[in-house]
Amino acid sequence: MRSKKTTGESLSALDRFYAGPLAMVGATGCYVASDTTMKLATAGLPLYETLALRGVFATACGVLLVFVTGQVRAIPGLIDRWVLTRNALELAAVICYIDALVNLPIANVIAILQITPLVVLLGARIAFKERLGAAPMVCILLGFTGAVMIAHPTGEGLSSYALLAIGTAFLGGVRDIVGRMVPVRIAGLVVALGASIIVLIGTAAMHLIIERTVVPSLKQVSLLSGSGFFLFGGHYLLFSAYKSGPIAVVAPLYYLVALWAIFAGALFFRTVPDALAIAGMVLVVLTGAAIIVFDPKHKGKRSARVD
């Protein structure tokens, strides 16, 4: 008979296993919610001004949460070299993404970004010597296929700007690898706050350099405040996902971005998915479920709980 302590440890281990995947599900949902509310607010506003305003609210949200949770003493972690490197990569990825999005069809950009999990997995193999079995790679390829089916890009608009989209995927993958190197003592809220601050500074600078300021309406400010809230949630959950969960399990769930984007488009912009997109959605969902259910560590922990 197992002791209560052993059973408690097994449950705790199982909870930790689920923490990473659940955080990634939440992160992808938050990012899509942030982009959706931002898109609803962009009419008449310059792009970088919109991003900067969203960054203001994301930063304000982060500062408030750091104070409310009593993590003020952890703020010096903002200047940790790994935190700064991770968040600088975040800013670079955002700028590449925006430039690509302005010059390419959105479906092409979304499809290209689906190589991000591949970058993360290969980076983990190189940086952390993490073992990658055949199953995670198959799931990655199936998830990639499903995401491309949802986006179904065309050959129109493909140009040198596609390199910016590829750069976004690469920078995003390296960002998540670097995030694993952030010391455990530095709270996730502090890392997310640092990301919000750096992106705010970068987008505000771009706005001042290339755009003319437009005064937003009250409705636009309200929408951007919601967008900033979701953006901060995405920063925090994405960092937490890669810090708490196995990369081989967490990375493929990034493909849920395409799934949430379909739902958001149908709900807010009346874009109804076709049969190919629906098939891609099913493939992404089944792939995500298979990653968790058939992961050897999960099966072992589940058996321990039953025992």
UniProtKB/TrEMBL annotation:
What lineage does the source organism belong to?
Bacteria, Pseudomonadati, Pseudomonadota, Alphaproteobacteria, Hyphomicrobiales
Locate the EamA domain: which residues?
20-150
Q: State the membrane topology.
A: Multi-pass membrane protein
Q: Which GO terms describe its cellular component?
A: membrane
- Protein name in the entry: DMT family transporter
Coarse class of the protein's main subcellular location: membrane
Which InterPro entries does the UniProt record give? EamA_dom, EmrE-like
- The answer to whether UniProt assigns keyword Zinc to this entry is no
| Swiss-Prot/TrEMBL keywords | Membrane, Transmembrane, Transmembrane helix
| Family statement | Belongs to the drug/metabolite transporter (DMT) superfamily. 10 TMS drug/metabolite exporter (DME) (TC 2.A.7.3) family.
Q: Does the keyword tRNA-binding apply?
A: no
Membrane spanning stretches: 51-70, 106-127, 134-152, 158-174, 186-209, 221-239, 246-269, 275-294
Compartments it resides in: Membrane
